[in-house]
Specification:
This protein has 3 helices and 7 strands. The chain starts with 20 loop residues before the first strand and ends with a helix. The chain is of the alpha/beta class and 125 residues long. A hairpin with a 6-residue loop joins β3 and β4. It has one domain.
């Protein structure tokens, strides 16, 4: 569902725009931006086996660890609404291990992409 930002008929008041209803673990609507992706990821990172060590404003957005069978490996994580936003923002692919997004529109991405739209469908089954 595409969202469009509009102005309310009430002078100077922005209208609240939300994503499609998902009703997932207390989140009513799908993300419409990167901040929504971060919030949704906070609800599923344990399901994905990722332990978050910290989130920051600098690139990459987060650092976490994931068990690989022998030990806990560091993962550098970048959050994006769409995976292709990673390229638009000019991020260095060598300094990131995982892109977490709502929509994966980068089919040949050279690093792991976690598309939350599909993840929550799987978890909800």
């Amino acid at each position: 569902m595409k969202t469009i930002r509009t102005k309310s008929t009430k002078k100077g008041r922005d209208v609240s725009i939300v994503g499609e209803p998902i009703n997932f673990r207390g989140i009513i609507y799908a993300p419409v931006n990167e901040q929504g992706v971060i919030f949704l990821f906070s609800k599923v990172h344990d399901d994905l086996g990722i332990k978050i060590e910290g989130i920051q404003q600098a690139y990459p957005d987060a650092r976490g660890r994931r068990f690989n069978g022998r030990g806990w490996v560091e993962e550098r994580i970048e959050f994006e609404y769409k995976a292709s936003d990673f390229q638009t923002h000019g991020h260095d692919i060598e300094k990131c291990d995982i892109i977490v997004c709502w929509i994966n529109d980068w089919q040949d991405c050279p690093i792991e992409v976690i598309e939350l739209k599909n993840i929550i469908k799987e978890i909800s089954k």
